[in-house]
Amino acid sequence: MADFLLNAWYAGARANELGEQFLARRLLDQPILFWRTANGDPVAMLDRCPHRFASLHTGRRVGDAVECLYHGLRFDAAGRCTRSPYSETPPANAVVPTFPVVEHQGMVWIWMGDAARADPALIPDHPHNVRADLRPIFGHETFSGNWQLGNDNLMELTHLFFLHTSTIGGYKPDAGPVEGEEYVVRQVGTQVHSHTGTPRVPNKAPIDMGVDPVAHPLIDRWNDIVWDMPSAMKFAMCATPAGGPRDVAPYMYQSHLITPETKCTSHYFWNVARTFELTPEGDAKYLHFFGNIFRTEDAPMIEDIQHNMGEADLWDLKPVVLPRDRGAVLVRRLVARALAAQAGAEAIAAE
Amino acid sequence: MADFLLNAWYAGARANELGEQFLARRLLDQPILFWRTANGDPVAMLDRCPHRFASLHTGRRVGDAVECLYHGLRFDAAGRCTRSPYSETPPANAVVPTFPVVEHQGMVWIWMGDAARADPALIPDHPHNVRADLRPIFGHETFSGNWQLGNDNLMELTHLFFLHTSTIGGYKPDAGPVEGEEYVVRQVGTQVHSHTGTPRVPNKAPIDMGVDPVAHPLIDRWNDIVWDMPSAMKFAMCATPAGGPRDVAPYMYQSHLITPETKCTSHYFWNVARTFELTPEGDAKYLHFFGNIFRTEDAPMIEDIQHNMGEADLWDLKPVVLPRDRGAVLVRRLVARALAAQAGAEAIAAE
Amino acid sequence: MADFLLNAWYAGARANELGEQFLARRLLDQPILFWRTANGDPVAMLDRCPHRFASLHTGRRVGDAVECLYHGLRFDAAGRCTRSPYSETPPANAVVPTFPVVEHQGMVWIWMGDAARADPALIPDHPHNVRADLRPIFGHETFSGNWQLGNDNLMELTHLFFLHTSTIGGYKPDAGPVEGEEYVVRQVGTQVHSHTGTPRVPNKAPIDMGVDPVAHPLIDRWNDIVWDMPSAMKFAMCATPAGGPRDVAPYMYQSHLITPETKCTSHYFWNVARTFELTPEGDAKYLHFFGNIFRTEDAPMIEDIQHNMGEADLWDLKPVVLPRDRGAVLVRRLVARALAAQAGAEAIAAE
């Protein structure tokens, strides 16, 4: 069975990463070259010259073409060879594969499966990323673990109370259960919605939740996640005075977008739009704050687990399953079903 | 055929390594977590949470329990889950495997095979390690080589006269044969006893052998080794005035305890009890002296050989066999027979 | 199919590398120990003691013998064991394989196939390497790529105009075709001769081509390469006033000698004899100049390609083939045929 779902949109780059220069990045175990044409359109092509297989990103931009550094073949944004070193007609196989890309809500999305099925309407909607008033920030990390471990991490939020106690997760007086705690997981179409609510916790956090801690020493706090196949999560963090109505806007919206790099390494794009400290200094502060939590708390944990699991499938290892794993387990099952469907379709196509 | 003998006691740690903190160590290619309960009992358990496979050593001690850092499952010294994050009854498979451990003569011994067969009486007896009057010192090194290369190294002492000429082996006037030299190898039950004696060599050494070099410029020198399956060696180094009676106490007792880390890397615990320089400064001096000989002379040699042999079996490479290889060859044969017996027993059990 | 041609002479070392000390080098994926006997004859033997498989290069020279560091076995230049540690008669299998070696024109050549076929007359003739008046310099580099990528690189000189534009290749006004350009590839016996000529290019280069740039602002420039199986290339670089007669001596002769280290790493010996800056300072300058071009331009390119190709065969990847690939493709075909013949001979021998 393949390790990746091919017919899906993946976050390939932050829009602000693409400019004059080439960006080379491995996605779904393929080398991808990102660049923008003169009129600003993003381009994604295989980062490999079809002549002698040099990486194209070591070459040169010549107008809206890429020139290989080794023997000078040039390719346009559609991957067609436009010049061979001695001006002969390029052979028919002098073509670089390209991939559908769409710039959307601050991200560049790439489709690496059947291009005919690359419908931009399927890109997950994360409108907070274009809310200039909330100063969205865009981060990029990598981790040495299979992409599904990233899903597991975000869909099992109990880890906030153990792994993140010194940063963003220490808001319970004790790590155990709290009276009236809520945990609801639902499948909505192809999405998984996960709601966790913790009533009457102390109003303290390393970040501003928008509720006056003097007037309201106790708050209700909840987290709502919407997961889209295969690995895009939209996360709303909310707080309200204890017992107050819950129809408030979140104090923070987040995007968590995981893209396989190889079978056992992954990209992690994260975006945060917030309602507080809305200054350039705030941007820099929270870009460091959240990136640092991931790099020092989540990534080492995921990498340790990857090391311990090796290339085994999670279920083959017969993990203990706890009630709070429901979201992560549902996501795992939907992904497994989709991978099996893909394998079946490939088997039929191969007949 | 397996690479390790499972039903055997292995040195897992020096007793003085276990205290408040966790000690994580790979043994027989399994991750082991060592710790001590409040009353001082050593514990060895698999260093892996059965929930999501995080390494437990990254977690916290909570009384006599280990709490996983990721989602907070707690396990007692018997590996039973005593708390799940939301206080639900832990599932039946929420168990961490534990291993029999015995603290004995300054070492913590672990049994990783069938626990029912873990008889402490089988632990090799190295009483010099509790001779406080001889100030035993306890060292730990690792080397990138199969554990049997450690056996080979110690059971073929000719290498003293070539590899260790500038440290502890240069005691012959010439590296060749000496008149009256003795070499006796015997199997005694499941042990191998090896005796090498070199008469009338100059009384000089980098360490005190207890014979006055002015009164006795020539000495008889001999080394007696007792090997216990699979890789524990007790080594007595002796000297007497040339021609004198041999019923003297050794000037140095050593333990050499090899424990596989992986197929191609090993732990090497070594302990030395001596009759000279019996001061804390002497302890520090000889801890460095012997550790350094291993790190700069033995380990590079073993690692070079491992590199050259790759994963091949020694006999498949058709080595030249010399008369002085008798001890090492006998040990190799006993180990091979035990590994074959283990494989046979596993095959029968699997039927 | 094997990765290397066995019945061939390979450059194993520069003659000036062999002296008192051992030189250990991996060639054709075998560890080779080079040394010279007291009378100066080069020796090449397997760098592995047949007793316990220690690398012999960690041992000692004892007259015209090599003594293993571990247990002291000694071997003469023919690989015969001349001493065992206890003076017993060495066992019949106490032999180290040796290889035919010939010192020729500043290089030490080794034959690692059937010794009976090691005819010194087959060593390629590169007489410029003994032209003391041209101060030949001898360089050695390594690269992480299959040896055939080294052939490809040198037999496809279009790369001068793209990869080497800032060093030795920027002599065309534009990287494209030039009127009257010549490209002739011929097979001559088992050799491949490649001629590339570029008329009327500006007389400028980072090195002296022997044509006065004031009197002759335009020159004709050509490069002639002779390739010998499997990977020895002799390269003459020539220049003459534009339209002048071509019967001039080259301003530079080069040897490019590639020897496989492993399947995916290679040695690259290069020698340059020149007609200018004939001083010790010039030697040092050009030893750096050419070594640096290889290390910073060619080697990274070859290593990138090796990474992209993995262990795939070039033709299986269906490369685009351009007219200027003719020399490289002809060489690839001759090598493939020779490898296939070798595999066939081995299959017959194995019957």
**C-alpha termini separation of chain A:** 17 Å
The 3D shape of chain A can be described as globular
Q: Which structural class do you get from the secondary structure elements of chain A?
A: alpha+beta
Name the quaternary structure.
Answer: homotrimer
The CATH architecture classification of the largest domain in chain A is: Alpha-Beta Complex
State the CATH class of the largest domain in chain A. Answer: Alpha Beta
Biggest interface pair, residues each? A-B, 25 and 26 residues
Number of strands of chain A: 18
Q: What key phrases describe this protein's structure?
A:
homotrimer; 351 residues; Rieske Iron-sulfur Protein; Naphthalene 1,2-dioxygenase Alpha Subunit, Chain A, domain 1; 32% strand; globular; 3 helices
